[in-house]
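B., you asked whether I could sanity-check this one before it goes into the benchmark set. Here's the sequence:
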Amino acid sequence: MDAGHGGPGAAGISGDACRTRVVLDIVGDKWSLLVVRSLRDGPRRFTELSRAIDGISRRMLTVTLRGLERDGILTRTVHNVMPPHVSYELTEMGRTLRAATAPLLEWSVAHLARIDDARAAYDARTDTSAAP
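And here's what the prediction gave me:
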C-alpha cells in the first residue's frame, strides 16, 4: 500500500494536502495576486499600489499587505526620511509565487471577454427559465 492510500505516512501526506489550503487562500484571494503582480518590477509605496490596483480600497489594501507580509510573500520597509514613507517588496518566496501565478493572470486577461459572454448567456438562459 502506498502513502496516498492509507499506508505508512498517509496521515502526513493528508495533513500536508489539507494545509495547502493556506496557499490556495492566497492564490484565490481577490486582491493578493494583483498586489504580487504590481510588485513584479520592484518595491512600491502604498499610494503607488493603491493607484495600480483598480477598485481596491485603502483598508483592503492594508489588510492584504499585512496578510502577505505575515505569510512571507513581501517585506515592508519604513524609510526614515522626511516625510517618512513605507515601501513593499516581494521576498524571494514572493517572486516564486509571482512566477507560478503569472500564467494564471495571463490566462485570465486572455479569456475575460469569453467569460463575460458565457456569463451573459447563462444569465439570460436562467432568467427565462426561473420559476416564480
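One thing to flag: DSSP finds five helices and three strands in the chain. Otherwise nothing jumped out at me.
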